[in-house]
Amino acid sequence: MNQIPLVDLKAAHAEVADEVRAGFERVMAATAFVGGEEVGAFEREYAAFGRVAHCVGVANGTDALELALRASGVAAGDEVVLPANTFIATAGAVARMGARPVLVDCAPDSYLMDGAAALDAVGPRTRAVVPVHLYGQCADVAALAAGLPERVRIVEDAAQSQGASRAGRTPGSGQIAATSFYPGKNLGAYGDAGAVLTDDAERARAVRAIANHGGTAKYRHDVPGFNSRLDGLQAVVLRAKLARLADGNRARRSAAARYDALLAELAAAGRVVRPVTVPGNAHVWHLYVVQVLGADRDDVVGKLNAEGIGAGVHYPAPVHLTPAFAGLGHGRGAFPHAELAAGRMLSLPLFPQITEEQQRRVVQTLAAALR
Prior knowledge:
This protein is an alpha/beta fold. It has two domains: 9-242, 3-Layer(aba) Sandwich (Aspartate Aminotransferase, domain 2); 245-369, Aspartate Aminotransferase, domain 1 (Alpha-Beta Complex). Helix content is 40%, strand content 13%. The strands form three sheets. Strands 1-8-7-5-4-2-3 form a seven-stranded mixed β-sheet, with helices on both faces. Strands 9-11-12 form a three-stranded antiparallel β-sheet. Helix 9 (245-262) crosses helix 13 (356-369). The longest helix is centred in the N-terminal third of the chain and has 22 residues, at 9-30. It is globular and about 65 Å long. The model has no long low-confidence stretch (mean pLDDT 97).
């Protein structure tokens, strides 16, 4: 059976294999395994790509979010507002540092954090709000910034929005953002990696210090810290893929537009709800997510998988309905939009190399599964 993966990492590797091999040889020759010129070059190149002043490479996206929070003054006992419909790492980074996640619902159409609900959730112990740029488009950071008290910082979760912007504003510009280079991201490493992006030189220095055992010089430890550094081998991969990221994002947009057209009949029949791009967003389509109507979503996923279609679910349960965060005290019904979406969402295969023929097969198989 001809498989159509959810994400085609083999095709992505084939495009950069020669460059990666040569880069690995450079790192080996220099024995620059932690830090080094490849890391420094990637940080400069990704900062330029993201139109921010500073990029600090770290070990993974979860660390990146925690480091951005710490550099923004969040500490144990503080509260951090974030959406209920996000990957568990958003809440996990907050909890790991001893702060308390305060959850809010999402908008029913875009699934982005409900900005008005986030502002309403701000209390005397709130130190930060974390808008999640979900599926490849950006939450409304400008509206949040206009409504928040000065003491509350915005820390963006940009793990799914590499190359995205909203009204011309990129993640981290004027604020601070964390991103992940997990292999399946638009810009994916060959393992775990992440970065913090910001225009704030002071917070960039703080991130770099905390991630290096609390200091920027050997055996100098100015603040409590831990070890979260980007390694040279991953930087090689990221540099090679970064050179192709803009073209890859354009290919994703074209593929998303094809899905929109191919799914028009199913949408008109009330069988699926296609994704919505909020006006002003330059969407990079990390995921193409539909809602399945009138059928059991999990049954549909099983039928697609049985036919070689790598469909997936992002995410099967909102944060408040996971055992890890049951202690927050929210039961079913607390965040109805997030819960409804979690029961219906289905991610279709999407990657820069996907062909129109593959997409037609995906949609035809989906239509058959919905009958």
